[in-house]
Amino acid sequence: MTVRVAVCQLAPVVGDPERNLDLALAAVSAAADRGARLVVLPELVTSGYVFADEAEARATAQAQDGPAVTALARAARDRGLVVCFGFAELDADGLLRNSAALVDADGLRAVYRKAHLWDREKEIFIPGDDPPPVVETELGRVGLVICYDLEFPEWLRLAALRGAQIVCAPTNWPAEPRPPGERPIEVVRAQASASVNRIFLAVADRAGTERGVEWVSGSAIIGHDGFPLSEAEPGGREQILLADCALAEAADKRISPRNDVLADRRPHLYGGVTQPPQL
């Protein structure tokens, strides 16, 4: 059985949660109309990203039972979907979190708080301390990470070890210079993570320009062999990517008759990975 996955590359507007929620709901509906069952939206899609300061972020943040999560959970229920999306969360202790939610017909299934904060995010958000959640859905086992988390191989390996068949990654990748003709390094890293863990990966980047920041607009749906099944068209525009993914294939970690990417691990040799770097 295959699952049609949709990645929605959108251009939310910082500080306009009502407009952003309308944008997200329209994208979910459009993806469902095209046969998608699993829909992934960008990081902080409900709030925008380039905040002037913590106060501005706080003004757009919502609780887990706020209007954005509630409305997107209702859309998932009504259309029979699994939906993953980023939002600025105001947690029960009044702390700001860069979070992602997974909702389906049963409502809110998981909230993940970004563990690895990028650049000025450290001035606004509190990092999460929990590993990537992996949720058993009717479509398969779905994991969640956010953006910069993808640059830490240990984090995707944790999701794979917990049984994820596909990992959804809402992102906001700021564009950086690269040599002519080269692919965005962010996409290359994502492909490598999918390949070495034998998992599918659905990356929802964003489009447009926000307060002078341009984005990679590198959304992609990547197969468990590391090769893209669908990639964003050039030009940085809003678009919906689709790919049919046989998620059950991610349960097979063999890459040769004698090799398995998880069974061949030798964890007793890796203790140094968790130690501070020796500079």
From TrEMBL:
<feature type="domain" description="CN hydrolase">
    <location>
        <begin position="3"/>
        <end position="247"/>
    </location>
</feature>
<keyword id="KW-0378">Hydrolase</keyword>
<dbReference type="InterPro" id="IPR003010">
    <property type="entry name" value="C-N_Hydrolase"/>
</dbReference>
<dbReference type="InterPro" id="IPR001110">
    <property type="entry name" value="UPF0012_CS"/>
</dbReference>
<dbReference type="InterPro" id="IPR036526">
    <property type="entry name" value="C-N_Hydrolase_sf"/>
</dbReference>
<dbReference type="Pfam" id="PF00795">
    <property type="entry name" value="CN_hydrolase"/>
</dbReference>
<dbReference type="GO" id="GO:0050126">
    <property type="term" value="F:N-carbamoylputrescine amidase activity"/>
</dbReference>
<protein>
    <recommendedName>
        <fullName>CN hydrolase domain-containing protein</fullName>
    </recommendedName>
</protein>
<comment type="similarity">
    <text>Belongs to the carbon-nitrogen hydrolase superfamily. NIT1/NIT2 family.</text>
</comment>
<dbReference type="InterPro" id="IPR050345">
    <property type="entry name" value="Aliph_Amidase/BUP"/>
</dbReference>
<dbReference type="GO" id="GO:0033388">
    <property type="term" value="P:putrescine biosynthetic process from arginine"/>
</dbReference>
